[in-house]
Amino acid sequence: MKNYSKQREAILSYVRSVRTHPTAKDVYGAVKEQLPNISLGTVYRNLAELAESGEIISVNVGDGFEHYDCERSYHIHLHCNKCGEIIDIDASESGLFSLAEKSGFKSENAVTVINGLCKNCAKQ
Amino acid sequence: MKNYSKQREAILSYVRSVRTHPTAKDVYGAVKEQLPNISLGTVYRNLAELAESGEIISVNVGDGFEHYDCERSYHIHLHCNKCGEIIDIDASESGLFSLAEKSGFKSENAVTVINGLCKNCAKQ
DNA sequence: AATAAAAATAGTAATCATTACTGTTTTGGC
DNA sequence: GCCAAAACAGTAATGATTACTATTTTTATT
Questions:
Q1: Tell me, in Å, how far CA of B59 is from C1' of C17?
Q2: Hey, which end of chain B has fewer CB within 10 Å, N or C?
Q3: Mean pLDDT, rounded, for B38-52
């Protein structure tokens, strides 16, 4: 059975407090402020468990790090190849899931990443 | 400038011959049949270059390996969490790109992965 | 077809995000 | 409070990918 831990609470709370799609290292750095003894392994384990249980989403944008996001409804991640920023845009109306179900597939979660240049970086 | 090499040709040719979304190791194993001395590093380097130039697409489905796909038009990757198979379904009409462009983002490529259970694994 | 510079390769070593392991601490039911 | 299960901190190990280097191949030029 799953037990409470202040470490997991702090990790989930942090991921929910930002819209920056933090990596495990990012979360570790932030949570360390409140829990100076927290271990990096604990952060990894809890992020994986939270993603497994569907409380958060893990996103791979191709930069070599796993990113985490508390937004659970389907949306698109715009990843800027220059500055690295990840911007969300809503796509809950896209109908992608029904396309999948039509082929007999049981969808659990969907992630879309579009790589390119954000507005700022594109103009430079 | 870019030079010809039989290694790169064999790699591209193999990725174009299958619909299995091979990993670098898969490609290495297959191309080794024709070119027994090919190096794993050569496979990695060429796959990265081919993806960079847009000749193939790299897809991360969350299984710890980078997969490669010769299909360049926008489509959805259905990844079965049980058997690991990756199935493509067309989604070129989805309008995802125009959603991105509307926000001022310059799209280069888009990858959608839906995780879940394929038809076969779902019925078991 | 010989020559030389640039590009690519094979083979190996290094990197580093993530996972596994172990002994200790915390949690939750009785 | 007591105990077993769960979680933790700290550290070691894993393994996909990348970097490095000496050698070979390619391409342009003569």
A1: 18
A2: N
A3: 98
